[in-house]
Write a structure and sequence with these properties.
It catalyses: L-methionyl-[protein] + [thioredoxin]-disulfide + H2O = L-methionyl-(R)-S-oxide-[protein] + [thioredoxin]-dithiol. Helices cover 11% and strands 29% of the residues. The longest helix is centred in the N-terminal third of the chain and has 9 residues. The chain has one domain: Metal Binding Protein, Guanine Nucleotide Exchange Factor, Chain A (Beta Complex). The strands form two sheets. A six-stranded antiparallel sheet has the order 3-4-8-7-6-5. Strand 1 and strand 2 form a beta hairpin. The protein has two helices and nine strands; from the N terminus they run H-H-E-E-E-E-E-E-E-E-E. With 145 residues, it is mainly beta.
Amino acid sequence: MSSTQDSGLPEPKFRRDDTEWRANLTPEEYHVLRQAGTERPHVGEYTNTETEGVYTCRGCGAELFRSSEKFESHCGWPSFFDPADSDAVILRPDNSLGMRRVEVLCSNCHSHLGHVFEGEGYPTPTDKRYCINSISLRLQSADGS
């Protein structure tokens, strides 16, 4: 992931240097959150969960999504039709891998979360699918467990 100085993004509110990120994340988490990797489909902890609660950024703890906006898209990753707050995420063009996509970043720490897709015909209020890596998230269940 390129630095925020050359990416055109505002400075993140939550910062760590690369050594701190590596010390606080597993190698798999680091690969996805800090190097814009993707976890394999259908293996993520939250892909099929229906637990009610709030999904936070694994990198910094910021609230990102709520279970009330999660839906089953059968794509292999947790899918949401909207973030918890419009300022919770940053969207930026991603033309990597020869595709045109829109990357989803945590607005608080600029960690890579996944991608958002539009116009796929899902019966949701926004017609958007925020396709998010489970490894980028932590679920705080509504019952506190």
